[in-house]
Structure formats: structure tokens, C-alpha cells
């Protein structure tokens, strides 16, 4: 369901306030959204998915059962599931290392707690004011 104009404006105001208050956090969140994968990662995910599909169908054709269950088909399904996760989450080890390095800086965590609380209080006040006006 699409957002109304009022909701869209509120969302844009919250987003701009987030960028103004903590640009490092905002860029980190924007970078880590689902679905943001590069072309190479998508191609790898498609190739792994096709391999899983071949295992799934091949397991039914070969008819290898362990405990009455087609184990090759199960492995194929798990490979396909992994390919889906790879396509969604993507992100290479360099991106993860950069994210960990940014979060692991020891002196910045106490400073970030104060402004976040202030930011949330301001957002809460704005939210309450808007509903009192309507």
C-alpha cells in the first residue's frame, strides 16, 4: 500500500533529520540495505541457484534415499536456499570488515549514545506535535 502525501513528507523529514544528526550512521544503514548487491554477486547467486535446482531434480531422478528421504534433493534445496540468501545479503568480506572496523572504534560508542537519545526525543516530540495538530 503506498504512503499518503503526509506520511511521505514525514518520512522525508525523519530521513533528513537522521542525515543531519548522524551522517555516519545514516550512510552505514543505507549501505547495508537488503537487495543492494553488485552484478558479480547476483551472477554467482544465479549460478549456485541453478546448481541447487539441478541437484534437486537430479536427486529425484537418481532416486538415492537415506532413511526413506531423497537426500540429494534435500541438499539441492539447501543449496538453492543458500543462493537466495547470497543474492539478498550479498556483501563481500571487504564490506563486512569495513562495517566491523567502523563499529569497533572504542571511543565513539559513548558519544553516539547521547545524540541518539536526543535525536529520538526530538523525533518523538515532532511526532506528538503532528498528531495534536490533526
From TrEMBL:
- Per the record, the coiled-coil ranges are none
Instruction: List residues traversing the bilayer.
Output: 43-62, 68-90
Q: Work out whether the entry's keyword set contains Transmembrane helix.
A: yes
| Keywords for this protein | Membrane, Transmembrane, Transmembrane helix
Compositionally biased tracts (Low complexity): 99-113
The source's domain of life comes to: Bacteria
Return the annotated region ranges for Disordered. Answer: 99-119
A Pfam family reported for this protein in Swiss-Prot or TrEMBL: DUF3040
Name of protein:
Transmembrane protein
Give the species.
Answer: Gordonia soli NBRC 108243
